[in-house]
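Can't paste images in this forum, so I'm doing it all in text. The chain is below; anyone willing to post the predicted structure tokens underneath?
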Amino acid sequence: MIYLLAFFLIAGEVRGQISQNIEIWRERIARVNPTVTPVIDKFYFRSIYFREPGGVLFELATDGSGFAVDEDVATLGERLSLPPFLESQRVA
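Text version of the structure:
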């Protein structure tokens, strides 16, 4: 069973266009599908979610600031980094 399909939105070479694009996609989807969420800022990227009639959850996401926003690219992935809003939930 498919539970989630995720897609990244890339629009041109200007990052500002990408952020605007997710708002446009949200408006378009909302016209035909009331399950679409508001744009959710996840620190590393922005997303919207919606379910299709068969129940599959879709995620559209920007490529946002990316995972290197709070880590050096050379050491990316060597430790678990959490976005600031989740850091307080880290278990030592």
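The domain at 4-87 is CATH 3.10.180.10 (2,3-Dihydroxybiphenyl 1,2-Dioxygenase; domain 1). Residues 11-15 have pLDDT under 50 and may be disordered.
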